[in-house]
Amino acid sequence: MSGTNVIQASFNGGALSRRLQSRVDTQIYGTAVAELTNMIPTVEGPLIKRPGTRWRAEAPASASWLSPFVFNATQAYVLVWSDQLVHFMTNDAVLLDESDNPVEVEVPYSEIEATQVSQIQSNDVLRLAHENHPPAKLIRTGAATFTYAPLALKVEPFATPNSNEAVFVYADDVTGTVTLNAIGGDVWQAGHVGAQFRIEAEDFSDIEAWQPGIDGITIGTLRRSEGKVYRAETSGRTGNEQPLHTRGAEWDGSSGTDINSKGPYGVRWAYVHDRFGIVRITGFTSATEVTAEVVRRIPSSVTTTGSYRWSHGWMSDAAGWPHLVTIYRGRLCLFKANEFAGSVLGDYEDFSEYNEDAERSEDMGFRRLIDAPDRPLWCQVDGDALLIGTSRGEFSITPQNTSEIFSGGNMQIKPNSWHGSEAADTVQTATETIFIQRGGHKIRAARYAIEQDRRTARNLLLYARQMGRPKLTQLAYQAETEELLWALRSDGTVAVHSYNPDQDVKGWAMGLSIEGAAVRSICVIPSTDGSRDDLWLLVDRGGTISVEQLAEWWDEDAGLTPADSYHLDSGVSHVGAPVSSIGGLLHLAGETVAILADGAIQPPQVVANDGTVTISPAASKVHVGKLYTARMTTLSPDVPMRDGTSQGRRRRLNRLIARLIDSFRVFGGDKGGKLDELTDRPNSALMGSGPGLFSGTVTRSVGGGWNSDGQATLESRTPFPWILSAIIARIELGDQ
Q1: Which domain of life is it from (predicted)?
Q2: pLDDT tens-digit map of 566-599
């Protein structure tokens, strides 16, 4: 029988999946553990107990989703989506109007649809897309005011033009309110009401072409020039300058007189229309008749000869609505099914395909098919590329010629990977796009690989597949103060990854497990002062929905005291003059809570029906909330042996040495056995005061039994921090 000390000085390998807990041959084994709950593996190596959550507001019973609205680093909002309503959180509180009522904005999305709304922000405008509703925008009109409205596009994208030359459309007028009639077949459905409709003149053969030097022009004469129609505003002979203007009136010669007082030479021509007319359908009479308002003057010939050259709007109740929206290379981009529409360059509310000369140009809007197996489920701008994910693979959309404008004619779609994606929002880090793989059990990080000239997507859950069960539903990323990738699971817990790809950190943990509650949605926005990123949570506690915020991370170098500790869930705080009671706990009425008052633990209490607890003695800094357990369990130590591995030998854990930073009441022992307190009250702590936090090395004998694992469990259930920088286990080994 022999004994040995086994040290683990880093834990950033995180919690390994059970498939890997016997893989002592892997490099990650020496920095990994078997279990991490409410403990986070840091990039540097130590484990840190996650902070508690602060209760911020009650949410509507139908609240289902949180999303960020970040105007700048110090003006950010959490959008709380519920059934046909949006509420707002900012400055760590509910956004109120001038009458101190919560600001709310009506939207058309149900509580289920709210979880599927595609969003892209530009300055004060958040543009929205959902396949059941017209694309829209949520506008910040002031620090405490928001409005919602469907996108009022000047010109919408249009579908493929009609190709049946037997189906003609006629208009009874060219401006104002008009009636459109179809001959030769059905054209409209009730779902086309509200959509635009484009009509192109079949030809201008009934209008003479403009020519220079022609006499006999009278006021009102019509002439065509380069696909445009003009009306004479003066009489006389035409000049030598062909009319090409697209608004107002211009002379085709000199408008003045010469030295002999003769002139003018030419005719003044007023622009009338080109070959395209656009209307917005306002009423449905039948499949062959609708009423409409003219958006762009209808060519006159449509009132007499009609035209088979017409196009429906690309989006409507009849044609369907875009399901994704983003902004890429100066264009608003909409995705509907497997089609892609880009706006006019620099104008997010105009999708005109033709310029003022009725010609296509590279800066105009466009629509084209996406060469991918199925429709995009997400889109994300990453550097110079627009990435899309489908259920079968991930693709990059880029200009084919990077020196020219990105357009429908200068666009290529290249496959990156064939993992397949889930319909869940991505997150963007400094160097990678993070997405959930099809099935909802894996998370992948896409990064450009220069040697392959594409973006490859590594599996972030390769060593921790258990974190993807039962299913992943939402991602969020904190860059400050800790670099953390959060992954919400369908069971209401939140996994967390210490994200630092440059250091090849792989560690995952069950970072947020709130006792008696489930997390329904997460998002990250900058803190009020912009110095850090805050994780916000939508929490369901027995049917009571609330918005909560992960508290500040403990900073052992910031000179904090025990009174500054906040490791309680769903809690509230008071900082100010001493108080003998504290309220605001209606969400925990009837439940037992812990109380930390001026750094000292007071006896637990049951919250009264009015949401209050008593503070005795009175205190000026008070935190009240639910305790939670932070726990870690080591892997089975691999002890070097002369005759090979120690795996399979009987073993017993009989001593633990832990190196701690700013910790209080940490218990440890044999996995599954009795846990003994490892920490003592520091000698420097004054009697009658709050407990001191321990930093240093502690050694305790533990009563472990003989087994085949020799694993240790450490845990803490207090309102105070716990940082574990190393653990040394004394293991006795027996026979095979």
Answers
A1: Bacteria
A2: 999 999 999 999 999 999 999 999 999 999 999 9
